[in-house]
Amino acid sequence: MRSILLTLAAALLTSAAVQAQGFDTFSTGPLIEGFGPHAPIENEMPIPEGMVFRHSYDIADEGEAGSLNRRLVTAARFLNMHAAAGVPAENMRLALVIHGGAIHDVADTATYGARHDGAENANAALIAALIENGVEIYVCGQSAVYYGVDNDELLPGVTMALSAMTAHAILQQDGYTLNPF
Fold first, then answer.
1. Phi and psi at residue 4, in whole multiples of 5°?
2. Which of 66, 80, 126, 131 is the S-S candidate for 157 at Cβ 3.0 to 4.6 Å?
3. pLDDT tens by residue, 100-159
4. pTM metric for this prediction
5. What is the tally of structural domains in the chain?
């Protein structure tokens, strides 16, 4: 497991400053253990007291068969690193808008396996942990129809939206900012 976390950290974080410290400084938690590796830093941009994050992610790229989707891992990393920096969990509202091939990464075992030669959905435990930590996950209904994925084929807690465009418009009206990464 440690080697997987180190590999994910290497793929996600490539700044020279972080590399100079080494990946031994990365850990998961405190909210989502086993996912979302992050490293402590000397922060020169303080997070304002009482800051409430309303942040959304646009995820269209499907992960490799049988592997975690690194964009889903990014949401766990956001929660973990901010909680470790002292932001209360109740002050972090995240939403994931899933479309394109990425909808398979939030599909049940049978649907995922049918697309990936019987592979298990490595994202299922991460999706459950994200939802348990209040992350809202919306699937583009238009992509779902295109790929033949029905509502009942989504992992528990994942919600079908009319479209990704609709979900983003509603989230923006609710004060969510779109993460560019």
1. -65, -45
2. 131
3. 999 999 999 999 999 999 999 999 999 999 999 999 999 999 999 999 999 999 999 999
4. 0.85
5. 1
